[in-house]
């Protein structure tokens, strides 16, 4: 059976769907971005085959797999025809073994042109991890909570600057309030897959903007090799007046569920202290978002300023949180003082 190497498989052909024939539990844990779940076996069937293989023999496991596969053939072809009207697909399983081979045989019998990933999703995951060890020049955008860093990153992307939005990919804003109003976070594996796909689309020569993050974004860990590069990269810190930040955050949180805000306050009550926690909860009940935000910023500003100690940074002062204004200020600052010093190869 002809097999496609990973680069060729990922690049196309254009508009050819990727069918992931692993079990749903495997797909949900992590998959190639954009791939469609097209399971050969259900989670239960996969478990039965695995148990038979371990406890009886490979031959018995294969026969069981064939027994389960047979009744599904017609329906799988019908589903594939809806997913790929042009009758051309890319197919993979875990290691490029019997599952993807069986689906390739079936679909080719039904008249499809099938591109089979040579070493399966396992090779893809190895490729993903290499994206984080690949040296690349980075520019890290920092600033106190409420400075509008994410908005500036989005504006930089609109201006065609290379950007990797870690918080967007992690579906979390990084603080105790970071999950409010956002979809559930992806699995760690899926976050890595999505991030690798983003980085692979960017040049390894041009500096890539990322937001200054801790090692974790909610429940997601920034891959350690990438985090090391971020720690060593030039840092640009937005300095926005406290009252401007308070108003921005108060406006944003004023649109959110008070119950979710209170839960977030309670999550950091030990760090806020008993009195500040009580006052913040009362402010939420009274719909005084500026007071609540001001109390929380006392903690977050202190924590972030402590993290900046000893780090060299270019400071960009602005009186506004307007993303368009601050993106231009940041670009000008980097043109003058950073880009010329960004190494073309960072050592990981």
User: Using only CA atoms, what is the Rg?
Assistant: 25 Å
Say how many strands there are.
11
Principal-axis shape equals: elongated
Portion in beta strands: 5-15%
Class by alpha and beta content? alpha/beta
> What characterizes the major β-sheet?
5 strands, parallel
- Helix count equals 17
Question: What is the CA–CA distance across the termini?
Answer: 39 Å
Number of domains: 2
CATH architecture of the largest domain: 3-Layer(aba) Sandwich
CATH top-level class of the largest domain? Alpha Beta
Q: H/E series, N to C? A: EHEHEHHHEHEHEHHHEEEHEHHHHHEH
Poorly predicted spans: 344-348
Q: Please, could you describe this protein's structure?
A:
This protein folds into 2 domains: 3-128, Rhodanese-like domain (Oxidized Rhodanese, domain 1, 3-Layer(aba) Sandwich), CATH 3.40.250.10; 134-341, 3-Layer(aba) Sandwich (Rossmann fold), CATH 3.40.50. It has 17 helices and 11 strands. The model is unreliable at 344-348 (pLDDT under 50). A 5-stranded parallel β-sheet has the order 1-5-4-2-3. A hairpin with a 2-residue loop joins strand 8 and strand 9. With 348 residues, it is of the alpha/beta class. Helices cover 53% and strands 12% of the residues. Helix 8 crosses helix 17.
List keywords for this structure.
four-stranded parallel beta sheet; disordered C terminus; alpha/beta; five-stranded parallel beta sheet; 2 domains; 348 residues; Oxidized Rhodanese, domain 1; Rossmann fold; single chain
Summarize the model shown:
The chain is of the alpha/beta class.
Layout of secondary structure:
Blueprint: E1 3-4, H1 6-11, E2 18-20, H2 24-29, E3 36-37, H3 43-55, H4 58-69, H5 73-83, E4 88-92, H6 98-109, E5 113-117, H7 120-133, E6 138-143, H8 149-158, H9 166-170, H10 188-200, E7 208-211, E8 216-217, E9 220-221, H11 224-232, E10 235-239, H12 242-253, H13 258-267, H14 269-272, H15 274-285, H16 289-308, E11 313-317, H17 323-337
Parallel strand pairs: 1-5, 2-3, 2-4, 4-5, 6-7, 6-10, 10-11
Antiparallel strand pairs: 8-9
Helix pairs in contact: 3-4, 7-10, 8-17, 12-16, 13-15, 15-16
């Amino acid at each position: 059976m002809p097999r496609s190497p990973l680069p060729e498989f990922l690049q196309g052909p254009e508009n050819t769907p990727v069918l992931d024939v692993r079990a749903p539990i495997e797909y949900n844990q992590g998959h190639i971005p954009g791939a469609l779940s097209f399971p050969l076996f259900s989670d239960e069937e996969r478990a039965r085959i695995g148990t038979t293989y371990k406890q009886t023999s490979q031959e018995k496991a294969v026969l069981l797999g064939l027994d389960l596969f047979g009744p599904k053939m017609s329906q799988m072809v019908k589903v594939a025809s809806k997913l790929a009207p042009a009758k051309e697909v890319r197919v993979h399983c875990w290691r490029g073994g019997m599952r993807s081979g069986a689906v390739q045989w079936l679909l080719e019998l039904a008249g499809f042109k099938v591109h089979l990933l040579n070493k399966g999703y396992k090779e893809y995951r190895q490729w993903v991890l290499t994206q984080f060890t690949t040296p690349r020049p980075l520019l890290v955008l920092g600033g106190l909570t409420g400075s509008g860093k994410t908005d500036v990153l989005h504006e930089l992307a609109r201006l065609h600057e290379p950007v990797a939005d870690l918080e967007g990919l992690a579906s979390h804003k990084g603080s105790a309030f970071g999950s409010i109003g956002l979809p559930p976070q992806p699995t760690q594996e899926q976050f890595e897959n999505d991030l690798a796909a983003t980085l692979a689309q960017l040049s390894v020569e041009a500096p890539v903007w990322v937001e200054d993050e801790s090692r974790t974004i909610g429940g997601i860990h920034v891959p350690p090799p990438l985090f090391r590069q971020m720690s060593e990269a030039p840092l640009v810190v937005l300095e926005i007046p406290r009252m401007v930040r308070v108003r921005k955050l108060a406006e944003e949180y004023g649109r959110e569920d008070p119950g979710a805000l209170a839960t977030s306050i309670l999550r950091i009550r030990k760090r806020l202290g008993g009195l500040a926690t009580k006052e913040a909860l009362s402010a939420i009940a009274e719909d005084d978002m500026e007071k609540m935000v001001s109390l929380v910023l006392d903690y977050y500003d202190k924590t972030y300023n402590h993290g900046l100690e000893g780090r060299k940074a270019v400071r960009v002062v602005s009186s506004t949180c307007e993303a368009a204004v601050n993106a231009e200020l940041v670009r000008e600052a980097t043109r003058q003082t950073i880009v010329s010093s960004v190494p073309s190869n960072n050592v990981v």
